[in-house]
Amino acid sequence: MSGFTTRAARPADIPLVIDLQKQTWWVTYEPIIGKDQCDDMFARIYNESALLRQMDEHRFFILEADSTACGFASYAGPDPNGIFKLHKIYVTPATQGTGAGRFLLSAIEDQVKQRKGNEIRLNVNRHNPARTFYEKMGYRILFEEDIPIGDFWMNDYVMGKLLTV
User: Fold this and answer.
1) Where does the pLDDT of residue 165 fall: very low under 50, low under 70, confident under 90, or very high at 90 and above?
2) Domain that holds residue 43
3) Are strands 68-76 and 84-91 parallel, antiparallel or unpaired?
4) 132 inside domain
5) Sorted alphabetically, which InterPro entries does this protein's record hold (predicted)?
6) At residue 2, does pLDDT exceed 70?
7) Considering the entire predicted model, what is its pTM?
8) Over the stretch 48-68, which tens digit does the pLDDT of each residue have?
9) Whole-angstrom Cα distance, residue 76 to residue 30?
10) How many CA atoms lie within 13 A of 75 on its CB side?
11) What residues pair up with 84 in beta bridges, in sequence order?
12) How many domains does the chain have?
């Protein structure tokens, strides 16, 4: 597959983000955290009002392949220490393995560099195979973090990458 592009997402894209996330969420996380936690977290994070609030705080981007949406990402920053945070990066299962994730992550890193950022961090579940992808992209585990969310916990690695500006 070729012809990847990114574009800034707008509030009008929220239904698209929800649709893309429906394609990726349970396939990605149910084997790791179970259906109950998947359902709970999706309801909290990917409803229209939650995404609208997130769009006020984060920069969202839609990934397209040959003009068809196939993923999205969001990041925020810098924090007081100058660190940017990748909050979300998802590509549809049909697009995984095509270079889509690499293209999208590189586009976000370029955005951070344009904003004079020199470090980006992300959280990944400690059992998520995506950790290997991030390591191939130059990210390293910095520390472990356990985050309560409702009746559940997110058991994550915080990974980081220094960017050359």
Assistant:
1) low
2) 4-120
3) antiparallel
4) no
5) Acyl_CoA_acyltransferase, Bact_Acetyltransf, GNAT_dom
6) no
7) 0.93
8) 999 999 999 999 999 999 889
9) 27
10) 26
11) 120
12) 1
Handedness of CA 17, 19, 23, 28 (dihedral sign): positive
3-state DSSP percent of the chain in helix, strand and coil, to 5: 40, 35, 25
Q: 84 lies in a domain? A: yes
Q: Is the pLDDT of residue 111 over 50?
A: yes
Q: Is residue 99 part of a domain?
A: yes
Mean confidence (pLDDT) of the chain: 95
Per-residue confidence at 164, pLDDT binned at 50, 70, 90? confident
DSSP code, position 97: T
Angle between helices 48-57 and 14-33 (to 10 degrees): 100
Cα separation, 163 vs 165, whole angstroms: 6
Indicate the DSSP class of residue 139. -
